[in-house]
Write a structure and sequence with these properties.
Elements (H helix, E strand, L loop, with lengths): L1 E2 L1 H8 L3 H9 L7 E2 L5 E4 L1 H14 L4 H13 L4 H42 L4 H19 L3
Helix pairs in contact: 5-6
Length: 146
C-alpha cells in the first residue's frame, strides 16, 4: 500500500511540512515519486521515520542523522560504523537521563516545599528557614549520590 504525503504524515503523527523538510535535508532518500513528481510512501518507510524521530527527540542533530541515513544507504559495509554510532548515542542519552533525574529531584523538592507551605498556610520566615535547611540537607545528600 502506498500513501500520499498527507496520508503518511497523518499516519506517522507528523506534518507534510516536516516530511518535506526531512526529504530536503536528505533524511528520506528512499521516498519514491511518481512521473509527475508526487511523493508516495510505503509501510516500510514508517520504520525510517520512527528511527529518525527517535534520534531527533534524543538530541541528535539533523546533520548527524543524515550521516546515519547515508551509512544505511551504503549497505552492509557500514554496519560497524552504525553499531558504534548507536553505542555513542546511547552514552549521550544516558547522560541526558542522569541530568533529567537531577532536575526531577529539584522539582520534587519544590513540590514538597510548596505542599508544606500550603499545609501551613504560609511561607513565613520561620517556615522558609526550615525549608532552606531541608534544601541544603537534600543537596548534600544528592552530592554524595544518595
Amino acid at each position: 500500500m502506498t500513501y500520499t504525503i498527507g496520508e503518511f504524515a497523518k499516519k506517522c503523527g507528523l506534518t507534510p511540512h516536516t516530511l518535506r523538510f526531512y526529504e530536503k535535508e536528505g533524511l528520506l532518500p528512499f521516498v519514491h515519486r511518481s512521473a509527475s513528481g508526487i511523493r508516495f510512501f510505503s509501510e516500510p518507510d514508517i520504520e525510517w521515520l520512527v528511527i529518525i524521530n527517535c534520534l531527533k527527540n534524543t538530541g541528535m542533530s539533523i546533520k548527524e542523522i543524515k550521516v546515519f541515513i547515508d551509512w544505511c544507504m551504503q549497505g552492509d559495509t557500514t554496519i560497524e560504523k552504525r553499531y558504534h554510532f548507536f553505542i555513542e548515542h546511547r552514552k549521550k542519552v544516558e547522560k541526558q537521563m542522569k541530568e533529567l533525574r537531577k532536575y526531577l529531584k529539584k522539582i520534587d523538592y519544590k513540590i514538597w516545599y510548596y505542599q508544606t507551605a500550603l499545609e501551613a498556610g504560609t511561607l513565613s520566615i520561620h517556615q522558609t528557614q526550615k525549608c532552606i535547611k531541608e534544601e541544603k540537607r537534600q543537596l548534600l545528600k544528592d552530592a554524595h549520590g544518595n
